[in-house]
Amino acid sequence: VILSWMIGTCSKLVQFETTGTHSLMAATGGTRTGGLGTPFQRTASRMGQTLFRLDFTPERDIVPADMDFYSRNFPLVSERHIPDFNVPPKGRPLVHVLTRMVMGDATSTGHVTGSATLEFFDADNEELSALRPIKVFAGYRWQMGFLLHGIEVVHDYMAASAE
Length: 163
Fold this sequence. Notes:
The chain is mainly beta.
């Protein structure tokens, strides 16, 4: 949770569940190898309420250039928001900034695409259901690694509101 707050991807104590895969499943005749045709499902829940479900089945290999729609937006940007924990409350968040990851030596491999569905569910204290997709065109999966050198503050909402 602390790392999430530092980066700006506050987790809200969500529990993730992902279908399991292993490359040795092929040796036992199983299909959950993680390769093409393996169905994946990931759900996120908090306090016993399901927030979203993602289903994805990789159908074909692609090259990294096919991911330009995503990778051209690097470095990743997040909003870091730490609420007012003061007692009594002071009425302003402790931190509210837009951050960008300072990344280096990024590598990626195993790019695949296939059919996917994404569902957002109604849940207490959540606003995801308003973002329900009308259509999911495709799903993508790949392995990625990078060095995170630090976090750059792109915009400080607190400083802007004080002006």
